[in-house]
TrEMBL record:
<keyword id="KW-0479">Metal-binding</keyword>
<dbReference type="GO" id="GO:0016712">
    <property type="term" value="F:oxidoreductase activity, acting on paired donors, with incorporation or reduction of molecular oxygen, reduced flavin or flavoprotein as one donor, and incorporation of one atom of oxygen"/>
</dbReference>
<dbReference type="InterPro" id="IPR036396">
    <property type="entry name" value="Cyt_P450_sf"/>
</dbReference>
<keyword id="KW-0732">Signal</keyword>
<dbReference type="GO" id="GO:0005506">
    <property type="term" value="F:iron ion binding"/>
</dbReference>
<dbReference type="GO" id="GO:0020037">
    <property type="term" value="F:heme binding"/>
</dbReference>
<protein>
    <submittedName>
        <fullName>Cytochrome P450 2B11-like</fullName>
    </submittedName>
</protein>
<keyword id="KW-0503">Monooxygenase</keyword>
<dbReference type="GO" id="GO:0006805">
    <property type="term" value="P:xenobiotic metabolic process"/>
</dbReference>
<dbReference type="Pfam" id="PF00067">
    <property type="entry name" value="p450"/>
</dbReference>
<keyword id="KW-0408">Iron</keyword>
<feature type="signal peptide">
    <location>
        <begin position="1"/>
        <end position="22"/>
    </location>
</feature>
<keyword id="KW-0349">Heme</keyword>
<dbReference type="GO" id="GO:0005789">
    <property type="term" value="C:endoplasmic reticulum membrane"/>
</dbReference>
<comment type="similarity">
    <text>Belongs to the cytochrome P450 family.</text>
</comment>
<keyword id="KW-0560">Oxidoreductase</keyword>
<dbReference type="GO" id="GO:0008392">
    <property type="term" value="F:arachidonate epoxygenase activity"/>
</dbReference>
Amino acid sequence: MELSVVLLLAVLTGLLLLLARGHPKAHGHLPPGPRPLAFLGNILQMDRRGLLKSFLRLREKYGDVFTVYLGPRPVVMLCGIEAIREALVDQAEAFSGRGRVSTVERIFQGHGVIFANGERWKLLRRFSLATMKNFGMGKRSIEERIQEECQCVVEELRKTQGESPENGYAGEEDLTAPSLLQVFELFYNFLKYFPGTHKQIYKNVQEIIAFIEDAVEKHRETLDPSTPRDFIDAYLIRMDKEKSDPNSEFHHRNLICTVLSLFFAGTETTSSTLRYGFQLMLKYPHVTERVHKEIDQVIGPHRLPSLDDRAKMPYTDAVIYEIQRFSDLFPIGAPHMVTKDTHFRGYFMPKVRPAGLPHFARVGILGSLNLCT
């Protein structure tokens, strides 16, 4: 019994010493930041209302470039447009690596255009951009498709008969909010074996993947290589061209993960912005009234809006910009990693080694003013 008590005291003493010492020093000369605790990192110093508030507070103390330990992992935060431009534009190659997002790592496993790295990322990104441009992205030719989607949205709104289509304020739940997912991201290697929200996310995404798999199969059955109809057709054609190359990145797994990535990127950003817009129009009826008046004057009730109308509707255009500024959908950008040992603003960031040091993330320009106040 006495031996057990001694062992317990020894373990507790060792743990306290580790906590007092903090996290072992990372390789390289990383930017300054709050002193971390062993295993926990800086989590006890984070704001309970979300990581974003904590990062903004640390920015005031340490400047636009600082280091925080999210659990045992060091993360270099880049804040503000100048620091982000220096990293992602001036040193684009060095900062082009994609960091790990534990919640979806099991799903993508480094495949698809968003979560890939190296040559795979370059090939898929180049192909995706070229293909989407061929189908009208950023061109006038896509206007008709947007108008078709707008008609569908209007029809769905009419079905609500004036009732709010969703309860609660748009954007109440996100990754910047305090949640179990944050804890899961910090301690993934331990918590992945336990039940939680991440299990439900995996299940939900599997349903979307099944939908995409079915769509790919239907596209394959009706494929005409001379007249590709969409992104999936174009990818299948490229797959057939490179099917004899065992090292080709144009295979089925990358197709599914790329379509899944584009699906999330295209639908979530658009739908969230619309929800913010609807909620803000309800909150500020005097703004809604002026927008409605301008729409009646320029477009009228009998035709769809077009890009040509934009120059004639300065107030509506300004309101749309303000909605996008206010909503700030991704204030904390996707995590990146340096692809080689990198010097940045007098600091040294080593390439990620098997131990996982270090990631770097970015914080964009943040809006804090309310709409039209």
